[in-house]
Each structure stands twice: as structure tokens, then as C-alpha cells.
Amino acid sequence: MKMKTKLIFMGTPDFSATVLKGLLADESYDILAVVTQPDRAVGRKKEIKMTSVKEVAVAHDIAVYQPEKLSGSEELEIIMSLGADGIVTAAFGQFLPTKLLDSVDFAVNVHASLLPKYRGGAPIHYAIINGEKEAGVTIMEMVKEMDAGDMVAKASTAILDEDNVGSLFEKLAVIGRDLLLETLPGYISGEIKPEPQNHEEATFSPNISPEEERLDWNKSAREVFNHIRGMYPWPVAHTLLDGNRFKIYEAELTDGEGTPGQIIEKTKKSLVVATGSGAIALKTVQPAGKPRMAVTDFLNGVGRQLEVGDSFGQ
Questions:
Q1: Does 116 appear as a known binding residue?
Q2: Is 180 annotated as belonging to a binding site?
Q3: Domain Formyl transferase C-terminal, which positions (predicted)?
Q4: Which of 47, 152, 297, 312 is 20–30 Å from 250 (CA)?
């Protein structure tokens, strides 16, 4: 009977949970423990919520460790004593200490970009914002430097206009899961030889800062459209209206020209805003102090006073 490969899995969001479920369904692997970020307070009620990976682990009665910082923690010593053959990470959100990497035969990461492009914590956001035609997943060896390890395998998919961060995360999670399960046996056996990255071609995608959520109406309609999609469903793009934050969840490209940020068309059902080149029609918005709503509801309510010629961003 073939011995199972003993793994420690590290990850946090839905993307990671999809990968973990794939490993759990494969009889080749024994998940000894899961390491995930600490539970956080979410929403207006600040309710403590388990991470997606923890939910999967608890459902399968797997030990869970949640150090605020893995390096130097008590949990690190416990994890290293478990006798794992290897580590698999996917959107974990922390660096792995060198002594942990040295304690196992292998450590690979499922990273949601086509490396060496978009190393860092927000590769899907930046791929959409920057207007990339495709996104993908790279299985790579873990090293101390962020996302700089040798590449085991890659797979890609087209980025469509209807895609946003949420939909692309779901697509890439499945692609990453399947790619990992397809290539991990060959990697462990030595049949698949990892390839070094070209570090000179590396680009970076750090976590989105609050300043980057702000829309720049001077950019083209396509760039503004991509920015909105690249912030949806989190952290959500915003602009200003009468000096107050105004969130824009969804929009679509449309025809029209005018001063950037200016309303150039308003009906009971549509609100069209000019950009530096072209225009966008708002679809789902959230005025300051109000819930998220369809633009038709906004125009029938607090947005009734808006007129053509009024401007966002001021």
C-alpha cells in the first residue's frame, strides 16, 4: 500500500479553501494540520468570523493553528514537530521562517499570477486594474524572498470584461487546485524539474492601499472601468460627491465625452459620467451613510437632486 504524503496546509481565504478541499479529496495526501490567519471581526456588527480555510479544517476535524505571526511563535515549534513531508500554501498572508522551510522535504505555494509578474498579495487586483488580457496560477517553490522561488507549473485563463476580482478569484482557485493535484506527484517524485524565474522581469502587486481605491476620472473610460472591476467586491473603488465618499461597485463602458468626472447623462434609470476619454454608466453604488444600491434606486432617492453638469471627484 502506497504511503500517503503528509502535508501541512497554510492558507486563509476562499481561494485557499478550494485548494485545501482538493487535497482532502485526494487519497494521496494526509493533511496533518492547517495554519491560517487569526479570526477577525467583520461587518458592521464586528462579529468574529472564522477564515474560510479554518471552516474547512474544522469540518474535517483537522488541527488548526492561527498565530498572529508564525515566526518565533509557540505554534511554529508544534508545527515543526508534526513530522510533515511537505508544506502547501495558498494565499496564506505570511512569510514562512527559513527553519520551517528547512524542516520539510518540500514547500510549494499556489500563487494567483503568471510569475514573475505580480509577486505579492494582490495579483488578481492588479491584473484587472492594469488591463491584462490573461491571468493565471503558478505553482512555485517557497523561498525566503516573496514569490521568488523556482516555478513547478503554470496555467492561465483569459480575463473577460465581465470578470472582477471575485469571479477571477473563483476561476483561479479551481485552476490552481487542479494544477496542484496534477503536478504535485511528479514534483515530489522528481520527474518535474522546477524552472528558475527571470527576476529581471518581476513585477509586484502589494496589498491595495486606501489611496489606491480612489478613482481618477482623468484616466480613460477603459482604465476607470478596469479600476472599478479590480476593486470589486473588495475593497471597492470610491470617488467623492459633495465632499463625501461615494462608492462605485459596478459600472459599464458607454459612449459619451465631457469634462472628466462630470455627469453627462441622467435619466430615471441611468447615470453616465465622463472620463478623460469616453464615459462609464454607473450600475451599483453606495452614497455616504447609505447602503449599497442599484443606480436606479439611487436616482429615485438621494440622487434625485443631481443634474447633468454636476461632477464627481470634487
A1: yes
A2: no
A3: 207-302
A4: 47
